[in-house]
């Protein structure tokens, strides 16, 4: 008796072969109908003394419709029976979902586990691109805002351009003072900046990804256990084709 995982491994090949032969048969029936016709043509003179003769012409039938149907049926029967066996086994294939030693769900069907494994890999993409706090700043939890961080206040100055006179040479009894006007930046106020962010810390993101990965791994293990289900060698397709072809 086969195991479900063995059936799952051969089904794609059986399906691929059957679909290829099915398409080829449809093409033959619709586009190559000359394969089902033959001809035997021979020449006989009306007079015995007629020396002119012609070789017989023979065109054999390439195949018959029934032979083609039988050939196609063989492949289709193999695939459909494998499909039937797989789906019947899937109704019985179940396993507990265990995460960190805790049974989260009992007797989860293999088909559910397969879909969970697929979709949680897609869900992981969300957590993988979570934006994190810029490392060049020191961030602390904002007690007034849920799920937000902030930095400590940073002070910077607002300046204003002002003209002032700079003495180049002081006044003497012989020469007046020489002055030069220059532009100076004068502090006129202060800015206090507190940066805020709704991002996660790198540690928080790492913990989330780790939990998603634990779910994916647990689902994969459960699916493998479920796919160890034995498969009954049931047959159905031959009977269906027997009804089609012979009534």
Name the features.
11 strands; 44% helix; single chain; two-stranded antiparallel ribbon; alpha+beta; 3-stranded antiparallel β-sheet; 247 residues; 25% strand; 3 domains
Helix and strand topology:
Elements: E1 2-3, H1 4-31, E2 39-41, E3 57-59, H2 65-90, E4 94-99, E5 102-109, H3 110-128, E6 140-141, E7 149-150, E8 154-169, E9 178-193, E10 196-197, H4 202-226, E11 230-231, H5 237-246
Antiparallel strand pairs: 1-11, 2-3, 4-5, 6-7, 7-10, 8-9
Number of helix segments? 5
Global morphology: elongated
Structural class based on helices, strands and sheet pairing: alpha+beta
Strand order of the largest sheet: 6-7-10
**Rounded to an integer, what's the Rg over CA atoms?**
43 Å
Instruction: Show unreliable segments.
Output: none
Question: SSE order in H/E notation?
Answer: EHEEHEEHEEEEEHEH
Q: Tally of extended strands?
A: 11
* Rounded average pLDDT: 90
Q: What kind of sheet is the major sheet?
A: 3 strands, antiparallel
Helicity level: 40-55%
């Amino acid at each position: 008796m086969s195991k479900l995982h063995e059936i799952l491994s051969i089904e794609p090949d059986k399906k691929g072969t059957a679909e290829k032969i099915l398409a080829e048969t449809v093409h033959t029936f619709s586009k190559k109908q000359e394969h089902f016709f033959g001809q035997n043509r021979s020449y006989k003179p009306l007079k015995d003394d007629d020396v002119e003769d012609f070789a017989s012409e023979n065109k054999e039938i390439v195949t018959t419709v029934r032979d083609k149907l039988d050939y196609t049926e063989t492949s289709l029967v193999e695939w459909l029976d494998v499909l039937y066996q797989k789906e019947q086994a899937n109704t019985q294939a179940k396993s507990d979902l265990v995460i960190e030693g805790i049974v989260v769900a009992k007797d989860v069907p293999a088909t559910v586990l397969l879909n969970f494994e697929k979709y949680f890999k897609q869900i992981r993409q969300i957590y993988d691109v979570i934006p994190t706090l810029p490392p060049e700043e020191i961030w602390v939890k904002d007690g007034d805002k849920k799920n937000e961080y902030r930095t400590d206040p940073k002070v910077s100055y607002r300046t204003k351009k002002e003209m002032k006179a700079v003495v180049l040479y002081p006044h003497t009894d012989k020469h007046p003072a020489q002055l030069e006007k220059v532009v100076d930046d004068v502090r006129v106020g202060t800015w206090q900046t507190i940066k805020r962010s709704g991002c996660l810390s790198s540690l928080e993101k790492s913990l989330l990804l780790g939990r998603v990965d634990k779910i994916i791994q647990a689902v994969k293990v459960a699916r493998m256990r479920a796919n160890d289900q034995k498969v009954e060698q049931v047959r159905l397709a031959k009977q269906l084709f027997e009804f089609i072809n012979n009534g």
